[in-house]
Design brief:
alpha+beta; Immunoglobulin-like; 4-stranded antiparallel beta sheet; 3-stranded antiparallel beta sheet; 9 strands
Amino acid sequence: MRGTRLVLLAGFLISACAPAAAPRGASDSTDTATAVTTAPAASPIPLTVASSRYGALEVKTLPLDTCEVAIKVDRGSFGDGPPRTLAGRADATGVVSWIYPAPLIPAGHGRHEVTCSGAEGTRNVWSEFDVSLKSLDAKGFDGSQRILVFMVDDLGPVSTENSVAVALHELGHIWCCRGPDAGADGHWLEAVADPLLQGVDRFGLMTHPVTCQVFPGFVTCPNRFSERELHAMGFADVPAPPADACVTKVNALVAQINALDASLASSRATIETTTAQLTEIEGRISAIERQYPGRVLPPDVYPTYTALIDQYNRLLADNNAHVDAFNRDVEQRNALARQPLRC
């Protein structure tokens, strides 16, 4: 098993020539009256921003102009972001309005760059807007919400089970976890088992790392939030979760493997202890044989020698039986670990 081991308004000031002021007092009869003629000032072609915010824009131009707006924002590394460009046509009053999707993007500033064209030529105007940091409110969902989650793994493809765990974990960060029990990264500082959850689910989904169990051809990962995580998300009443058939199967399998592992550890210790005894007895036997190379033993040594031989043979037979049982348990344990589960 391994761990696995988310408004600038463009305004125009028009200056008009004021008529010359008449001189005060009596007019000089010798003065010649001169008429002052002024040429009419050219009126600028209007293109102004009426309102501008992330997700909506309204401009004022000439009636029936064709306009296009480019939306400049920091789109972040993942997600759709807003549309890059929009097109529209002014109505009879010269108003063009756009309302566009405004998904979550990094906080900062954006810019609407507008170009309008018509019978009077092409004009440009732009306006900046703020992009504030937003979060989703779990209580504010009205119906379904479409949320895209992108997963990247430097080690290769991500399994479906792991993908679900990653998606739920990252979505959980919208609401969880904060406060003294959580770190700055939004993960619980301590993994606390939920008594209502089983197996890989028992610590919930907001620990780091989220741990999966891996069997040959099968991976099982957490897919349930713990009670404290659901409380952190704003849910007051959390019903007991139904039993997960897959988790139940895995728990039974893991229990069998753990029992065999414990038995194998005990058997290994017995075998090692007996092997050490055999080595000690064999050493004593060899010492006698070296002392009497002709194998002709004195009457007082012979009983000791034969007793050591009998003790060695009994221990060897017992140890061999333990080794055979150990090897059978190893085969059974490995067969269970290789057992495919499809759930």
